[in-house]
C-alpha cells in the first residue's frame, strides 16, 4: 500500500513538472500575419515590411510585398507564426527589377525609420490580417 501511494505521488509530480516545462517552452501565443500594403491607394510590389517587437529579446519578423501588394511575415528560420505582442512597423524599398519600386518610389522616414515610424501593430494568437495604407504626399 505504501509503495503504490508513493508511486502515485511520483507520477503526479512528474506530470506537473512536464506540464510546467511544456507551458514554459511554448512562450505564449503566436499568430500568422498577412496583409496588403498600398501607396497612395495603389497596391505596390517590391516593398519590405518589418515588424520590430517592443519586447526586448524577440526577433524581428520580415515580409516582402508581391502579387498586388500582399505580404506574409516570416520569423526566425522561415516560421510563419510570430509571437503575440506590440510591434513597431517599418516599410522600405526592396529593389525588384521592373516593379513600381524600381521606377523611383520614395517613402518618408515616417514609414522607413524605426525611430520615426508612425506604423504600429498588435499581433494576437491566430490569424492577423494587417493592412497599411501609405501616402507619399
Question: Main attributes?
Answer:
137 residues; alpha+beta; Immunoglobulin-like; five-stranded antiparallel β-sheet; 38% strand
Mean of residue pLDDT values:
82
**DSSP strand tally:** 11
Structural class: alpha+beta
Q: Please give the alpha-carbon distance between the first and last residues.
A: 81 Å
Which segments are poorly predicted (pLDDT under 50) over 5 or more consecutive residues? 14-26
Total helix count? 2
CATH class call: Mainly Beta
Q: What is the name of the CATH topology?
A: Immunoglobulin-like
Largest sheet: 6 strands, mixed
- Any idea how many domains? 1
CATH architecture: Sandwich
- Output the radius of gyration: 22 Å
- What is the overall silhouette? globular
In the CATH hierarchy, what is the superfamily? Immunoglobulins
Helix content: 10-25%
Helix and strand succession?
HEEEEEEEEHEEE
Q: What fraction strand?
A: 35-45%
Short description:
This protein has two helices and eleven strands; from the N terminus they run αββββββββαβββ. The protein has 137 residues and is an alpha+beta fold.
Report on this model:
The chain has 137 residues and is α+β, with helices and mostly antiparallel strands. The protein has one domain (30-134): Immunoglobulins (Immunoglobulin-like, Sandwich), CATH 2.60.40. Helices cover 21% and strands 38% of the residues. It contains two helices and eleven strands. Strands 1, 2, 5, 7, 10 and 11 form a six-stranded mixed sheet that branches. The radius of gyration is 22 Å and the shape is globular. Mean pLDDT is 82; it is low at 14-26.
Amino acid at each position: 500500500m505504501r509503495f503504490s501511494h508513493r508511486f502515485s505521488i511520483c507520477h503526479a509530480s512528474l506530470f506537473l513538472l512536464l506540464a510546467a516545462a511544456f507551458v514554459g517552452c511554448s512562450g505564449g501565443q503566436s499568430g500568422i500575419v498577412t496583409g496588403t500594403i498600398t501607396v497612395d491607394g495603389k497596391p505596390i510590389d517590391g516593398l519590405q515590411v518589418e515588424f520590430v517587437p517592443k519586447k526586448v529579446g524577440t526577433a524581428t519578423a520580415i515580409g516582402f510585398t508581391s502579387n498586388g501588394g500582399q505580404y506574409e511575415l516570416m520569423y526566425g528560420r522561415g516560421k510563419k507564426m510570430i509571437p503575440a505582442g506590440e510591434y513597431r512597423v517599418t516599410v522600405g524599398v526592396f529593389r525588384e527589377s521592373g516593379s513600381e519600386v524600381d521606377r523611383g518610389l520614395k517613402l518618408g522616414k515616417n514609414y522607413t525609420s524605426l525611430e520615426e515610424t508612425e506604423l504600429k501593430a498588435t499581433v494576437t494568437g491566430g490569424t492577423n490580417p494587417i493592412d497599411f495604407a501609405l501616402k507619399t504626399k
